[in-house]
Amino acid sequence: MEILRERDVEFDVIEYLKNPLSREDFERILSLIPNEPGELVRNDKNFKELGLNHADYDSPEKVIELLLEHPKLMQRPVAIKGDRAVIARPSSNIEELL
Fold first, then answer.
1. Cβ neighbours of 28 (radius 10 Å)
2. Which ranges of 16-59 does DSSP label H, i.e. alpha helix?
3. Are 77 and 15 spatial neighbours (Cβ–Cβ below 8 Å)?
4. How far apart are CA 91 and CA 1, in angstroms?
5. Scanning 19, 33, 39, 75, which has its CA 20 to 30 A from the CA of 84?
6. What is the spatial distance between Cα 56 and Cα 10, in angstroms, rounded to a whole number?
7. Cβ neighbours around 8 below 10 Å, total
8. pLDDT tens across 31-84, in order?
9. Which has the higher per-residue pLDDT, 35 or 5?
10. pLDDT-derived band at 7, boundaries 50, 70, 90
11. Cβ atoms of residues 41 and 47 within 8 Å
12. In sequence order, what are the beta bridge partners of 82?
């Protein structure tokens, strides 16, 4: 967000834990990012505590099902501009949209 502020780019923040994303939201994000679907899933402590295997989340449908059930596992932030999106981690990825 700092990169956007520095460049005076207007943006909206979606607090997806307070207002969960829908299946359609996830489908749109996955259709816009250039990454493989599984890259939208955080392979973090929560993921490991759930006993999940990253290799099991290789399709959009599997990723969507997982993120609908466990939204905290979504890689974030995701920046969307028009018909393109990036996972903005590292934050320098945001420059691809600007």
1. 15
2. 23-32, 45-49
3. no
4. 8
5. 19
6. 37
7. 6
8. 999 999 999 999 999 999 999 999 999 999 999 999 999 999 999 999 998 899
9. 35
10. confident
11. yes
12. none
Encoded amino acid at 72, one letter: K
The model carries a pTM of 0.88
Instruction: Specify whether the CB–CB gap between 4 and 94 falls below 8 A.
Output: yes
Residue 1 has pLDDT above 80, yes or no: no
Residues 6+ apart with CB under 8 A from 54: 38, 41, 43, 47
> 98 vs 8, 29, 50, 59, CA distance in Å?
11, 18, 36, 28
Q: 16: which residues sit within 8 A by CB, 6+ positions away? A: 71, 74, 76
